[in-house]
Amino acid sequence: MKKILVPLAEGAEEMEATIIVDVLRRAKWSVTLAGLQPGLVVCSRGVRIQPDTEWDLCEPLGYDGIVLPGGLGGAQRLAADERVLEAVRVYARANKLVAAICAGPRVLVAAGVLEGRRATLYPGLEVAGAGVEWLDETVVIDGTIVTSRGPGTAMAFALALIALAEGTETAEEIRKGLLLP
């Protein structure tokens, strides 16, 4: 069973956060939603999410991977948090799963782990001069780093994470159970 950490900050895109957690848990992965601050997190559309724990109460480096939801405000807060940036760096150096969707890849740029890689993110949020080959694709996998575009690609993103870690058969079973075309 994979153990995945999903950091959650104010302004996160709620669809992405909940779809990631839901789909990965359908694969029987242990997913911990960790709020950067205590209490409820108010997401980009006003939905309030109660994280499983607070960042400081979990062992952020004790997971098989880290998955960052987007939402511009949430991504900006993640990118400004040195605890998150250091975790991303450690996971990337260890070739563990590092994944981000929507504005989340900007956190990967801030952590310095996307230079020389291919990635995607929400259209118009590309970071010039970051040394990243930005692609116009739903999901981009470059080694153990996975990126995706936005709320409408969250299912494909989560399924790609499962396919990468467990193979396409498991991802296909979950896709069928979700009645996705």
Strand order of the largest sheet: 5-2-1-6-7-11-10
Strand share of the residues? 15-25%
Q: Tell me, what is the CATH class?
A: Alpha Beta
State the end-to-end CA separation.
Answer: 26 Å
Query: How many helical stretches?
Result: 6
Classification by helices and strands: alpha/beta
CATH architecture: 3-Layer(aba) Sandwich
Low-confidence stretches: none
What is the third-level CATH name, the topology? Rossmann fold
**Which superfamily, in CATH terms, is the homologous superfamily?**
Class I glutamine amidotransferase (GATase) domain
Q: Quick one: biggest sheet?
A: 7 strands, mixed
The dominant shape is globular
Rg over alpha carbons = 15 Å
Order of helices and strands: EHEEEEEHHEHEEEEHH
Fraction of residues in H or I helices:
25-40%
Count of extended strands = 11
Q: What is the multimeric organization of the chains shown?
A: single chain
The overall average pLDDT, rounded, is 97
Number of domains: 1
Write up what this structure looks like.
This protein is α/β, with parallel strands linked by helices and 181 residues long. It has a single domain (3-177), classed as Class I glutamine amidotransferase (GATase) domain (Rossmann fold). It is 35% helix and 22% strand. The protein has helices at residues 14-26, 72-79, 82-93, 105-111, 154-166, 168-177, and strands at residues 3-8, 30-35, 41-42, 48-49, 53-54, 65-68, 97-101, 118-119, 133-134, 139-142, 145-148. It has a 7-stranded mixed beta sheet with strand order 5-2-1-6-7-11-10, sandwiched between helices. The chain has a two-stranded antiparallel sheet with strand order 3-4. The chain has a two-stranded parallel ribbon with strand order 8-9. Helix 2 (72-79) packs parallel to helix 4 (105-111), helix 3 (82-93) packs across helix 4 and helix 5 packs antiparallel against helix 6. The longest helix has 13 residues, at 14-26. The protein is globular, with a radius of gyration of 15 Å. It starts with a strand and ends with a helix. The model has no long low-confidence stretch (mean pLDDT 97).
